[in-house]
Design a protein that fits this description.
With 249 residues, the chain is an alpha+beta fold. Helices cover 28% and strands 10% of the residues.
Length: 249
């Protein structure tokens, strides 16, 4: 029996336009389902990296304190908390590279705090700034070797010496400069932020003049997290503060 060439050609034709559109639609649906999962996984990975940075940074600060019986700070630095503690690089009153404020709550008359590059120069044994001529780390011990960043806004230690998390936030560091076994942070000490929030802080019963919240320990480290903002008029687990990364939790 002879085959019909026309029938053979028809049976072996390529995709029709309709079939191709169906395939494209299926691919689009799969991408729309997959992309959010990938994005969330990337955020979780960055948060995990930030937590690791905080653990390493705290360990370096504690090691320095054990060696020198002081915290890594500029010589003669004054505390910026009433209880005698010191906070570095509070995002309140600062702006991002695009000029947008880091504090959605617009705290009036925000307190000024030193950048965390003061701490980093000392811990990394860099002859610069607060550690000029290795004055604050005369043993030249390298306590921390974080990744370097090519610019002043990426993850790692940038050209300006500031240590930033994977979202580009400078790490906020507070130390128990008073030496009373409690450490307060200029942001999380506030009643409006930490009262009633289960974030591992306790009311400082030793403070008889005002209500404040502290961490039992010597070092607090945190960052504003993925949204790169804080809100000084919201609770610790509300609004822009919800995704803040807290190194002590």
């Amino acid at each position: 029996m002879k085959s019909n060439p026309t029938q053979f050609i028809q049976r072996n034709r390529g995709f029709t336009l309709v079939e191709m559109l169906v395939v494209i639609a299926i691919i689009a649906i799969l991408v729309s389902i997959t992309v959010p999962f990938v994005a969330r996984a990337m955020v979780k990975s960055k948060v995990a990296t930030a937590r690791t940075d905080m653990i390493n940074l705290k360990g370096a600060i504690v090691s320095y304190q054990n060696d020198y019986s002081r915290f890594p700070s500029a010589r003669g630095v004054a505390p910026n908390l009433k209880g005698g503690d010191l906070t570095f690089h509070l995002p309140i009153g600062r702006k991002h590279a695009d000029g947008s404020p880091q504090d959605a709550g617009n705290w009036p008359n925000p307190p000024l705090t030193p950048d965390n590059n003061v701490v980093m120069a000392i811990l990394m044994a860099i002859d610069n700034g607060a550690n000029k001529n290795h004055g604050r780390n005369p043993k030249k011990t390298t306590y921390l070797t974080p990744n370097s960043a090519d610019d002043a806004f990426s993850a790692g230690v940038g050209p300006n010496g500031v240590f930033r998390d994977p979202f580009g936030n400078p790490y906020v560091i507070s130390v128990d400069l008073a030496g009373d076994g409690n450490v307060a942070d200029l942001f999380y000490r506030e009643t409006g932020v930490s009262k009633g929030a289960s974030i591992g802080l306790v009311r400082n019963v030793d403070n008889k003049t005002e209500e404040e919240y502290v961490l039992r320990g010597s070092v607090m480290i945190w960052s504003p997290g993925p949204d790169r903002q804080v809100n000084s008029k919201a609770g610790a687990l509300a609004k822009e503060n919800t995704d803040n990364i807290l190194g002590w939790r």
